[in-house]
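hi got a favour to ask and not much time before my train. below you get a single protein, a line of residues and a line of whole numbers that encode the local backbone shape. could you go over both lines and see whether the tokens make sense for that sequence. a few lines back from you is plenty, here it is:
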Amino acid sequence: MEHGRNHQIREGLLRGNRRYDEIWKHYRPLKDASCVARYLASAQGTEYRTFADYATIDQVRHEFVDHRLRHVEASVLKLIASPPDRKNRNR
């Protein structure tokens, strides 16, 4: 995947290509958590007083780092190891 010019373009590439389904599945919750961490609001409009109202330290460690981030890393490494078939690029 080419490096997109902004977050929306990159996310569109991840969502729009089945080759990246596994990455998107685990990236999206990480993105959601990062929005809450920065803006204390979710993409759905839920507001939080503190990040701790959204997730505990244990949830961050276990769900986001140990689970989600590890799956994103593993999926990317798998894609790097197997270049796409040019004929079936978007399947």
Remarks:
- The chain has a mean pLDDT of 89.
- The CA atoms of residues 74 and 81 lie 11 Å apart.
- Residues 57-81 form the longest helix (25 residues).
- The radius of gyration is 15 Å.
